[in-house]
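Backbone geometry:

***
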Amino acid sequence: MKAYIDDFNLIVLKLDVGEDFHDEFYLISQQIHKPLTLENIVTTHDGTYIHLTTEEIDPSYKYFISMRAKSGAITIPVYIGNITKLNRFEQLYDATNYEFGALCNEQQTTFRVFTPVAYHVELLLDKEVYVMTRHPKGFYEITIEGNHHLKPYNYRVQVNHQTYVTTDPYAKGLTVNSESGVVIDINQLNINPVSYIDIQNKDAIIYEAHVRDLTMHQNSGVINKGKLAGIIETNTKIDGYSTGFDYIKSLGITHLELLPINDFARVDDINFTNRYNWGYDPEHFQTIDGSFSIHPDHPSERIETFSNVVSAYHEHGIGIILDVVFNHIFIQKSSNFEMLVPGYYFRYKEDGELSNGTGVGNDIKTESKMMRHFILDTLRYYTKTFGVDGYRFDLMGAIDIDTMKAIQDELVSINPHVLLLGEGWDLMTALDSNKKTIPKNSMSLPSIHFFNDYFRDLLKGNNFNLSETGYFNGKGHQKDQLQYLFQDNHVALNKSINYVEVHDNHTLFDRLHFVNDLNYKHKIMIHQMATAFTIFAPGIPFIHAGQEFFRTKYGHGNTYNLGDMINQMDWNRRVHFDKEIQFFKQCIALRKKYPVFKATHKEDIKSIHVCQTNDEHFTVIYFDKQAEIIVMYNPTDREIDAKIPRHGVYQCHLTNQEIDSISRSKTITTSYSLKPYEISVLIKSRQY
């Protein structure tokens, strides 16, 4: 037998099968004792539901129902039910005009936490206990004299007839393994002046990496392996070849995207090498995970080090993008969000079950006012405090479009060049399709970019069917579809994130091993063609760290927890494939040199022409103001005599074939002998 507050005047009493009741019910709390009116009785296979009505219910009171049954008088607790899911609850407790967390200045520290349904809240601050005061807008607050920078704190909350000790969702600092929040006064930390890189979205070339993967290899040359500090160490080498920070700087990429660095579950802050995780198990969003810190027991170190990371990359013209996971919480029931406001921050299906479109047990209700407020506050914090240049939204299709529009408008107002991108998959979350952030709804989101899975699958085959091939690993399979990658398709060109490999699923190198009739050399060349196509195609190229030297995870697909041996970047390959890395750098240099490669709007795209060919090879002409550029791809194992589709004299500026300087200097006029698995870039200077 249980009772729930489902509306401001409705309590639903659930009796299990066989339980009896009397028709006299009373609602009791310290403040009231009044009769309830029996409105309706519904009997189902799992019990009887009694609908009881009364005058206005204040959800911050601790209620009981008193009733009589055959066994005598019964008193049962009343729990928070569907009331937190109502629009009226949203309106009544709209506290979006307030700032939350531990707020410091020189004279005092204010603590503010949103929990409209709590009966009593105490602040536990460094072994001291303070009773907090409830505000009509549903939050509790207290102001304490003095600046309490670096002191640990928690909230002790009485809600749903239980007492919880929980952390603050808005905490900017945490103790080891997230036991307590830590008060942070940013003004007392060594934070670098904030700046943003001056790179337009269309000029971006994104390089995706996990902090830990970049440096854990024994030959990385990095001292602080697996740490944020390690990804800005300079002069690190293997056999005289650059690694880590110096290597990334040399590639020519414009943005480094880091997999989640905020606090996540499963990895111990101190003994971090015992377990591995990508970071998609979020617990606290506004605090950097302790496992990435040299001194996880010093909360300020992780903040200051991240500031140094952003500044170090900015000094070399590289922006920082953070991967953020605003679609689920690691464990919903034990999360601070659920403890503070049961049922409010998560989506539910019509049958009352948690929505699970994310596939990890829960979906965050991003459309709720206070969750949207939290998300905006989090992004504003990283942007204004550290100068973060962009964000990748994990499972962005599970985020409602109004929240994404609010994010877009807020961040663009701070930094007009902010780079926003995400996975716009149409997930089975409890949200109307027209409210999801998916490509078909993107008209109101001019600054939001979408990962283009259509692009990915055309190049290498269906991501989830290893036996399927695409154009490059299928000897020209689906060639007739490639032309659609040069016009608005599933994703508009000016919003397209082009990729053939990311941290998810198999690396391209491993994927190619499933094509049985390819020798090692040909796999390398096919890989180069697909990567080059990604760089030259209209849209924003997205490169997985190590893709340029054929990163392998030894045949494993989902490696989110498989350890460093599988996930680390093997810097030995950086030495072995240095020649191929130079090819990758040349591709990037060409894209940067010729603006036509960055054409995405309808007028600009007219400068790109896809040629019709009678065989499997694919040819594209780019008409740049400086030059005419012909890019040819041959995905077959035979040599093709490719016709030059334009009059004039061209030279081969780039190929994945080994050719001598004499051959490279030869002029090309009518045809070009395209070797098996060759990509070739032919250029003719334009004269006016």
